[in-house]
Amino acid sequence: IRITYLNALGPNPEGQDTTMNTYHSPNTTNLHTHGLHISSATPGDNVFDHLEPSATFGTPTSRSYVYDIPLDHAGGTHWYHPHVHGSTALQVGGGAAGCIIVEDEAGDVPLSVANMETELLFMQYFPLSTGPTLRQISRDMDDELIRRSLTGDADFVLVNGQYLPEVRSQVTMTAGVYKRFRIVHSGTIAFLELGLSGCTLDLLGKDGIYLRSVPRRISTINVVAGSRADVAIKCDAVGSYLMQSGARRRRRRQLLQAGSLFTGSIATFTVVSNSGASSDNLETFTPVFPDYLADLQ
Known about the structure:
By secondary structure, the chain is mainly beta. It is 10% helix and 31% strand.
């Protein structure tokens, strides 16, 4: 993968404290992949390479990245985002992120999974009331762009850039037929405890790696900030299904002790008539793993 990354944000505020573990340099950025098994040497995935802004807003500086993905790289769901220590929370929390999918090689998984219709659910959590809020971070960094752009005071989640979308792809989700969802939680804080009442949830993998034994029947999809989950979902009846976070509250106390849990609606799934089509329960299988994922036990 070859990427030319542009930074047109303009100069950083003057006189900032740039010591470690402080918010600073809101307009300095870079690019980091989350999950790929690739080199960290320049021009690869080196988080210590910074792309400084120019002296004029709208006049971009640029940096080139080259990601050499090995031929034996495991199939999986990954993502990318800025990762400059000091400005990551502001930039990623403000929505600067995207998905990278490495497809499976033929024979790595059974045809029931390889041929399954797939849809991406890229979730971006925006903390407007849960601290540290984007406004607090922006104020601490003397940043104006994010602070002036924000309205409202309630946390919310965008899915594929939309608020409470109706999950429909070019081929609508069909009653009684499994569909694979690649779920990415690209926020910087908060847990998502996703439930879809009335549907079957089979976990295939977490954080870009298949389970050692696939699938695993689950009742909720738990994803922390930066985490991913690949889930096969089947809804047997025609209708609308609301995906919510925190509705089951199965582990609410434990989650709240470890950090914030977002509670609210995420997306609506619309399921239509299957015209006789149906899926049996998924067969249990062991995926083919590359050498770098060998079990050392």
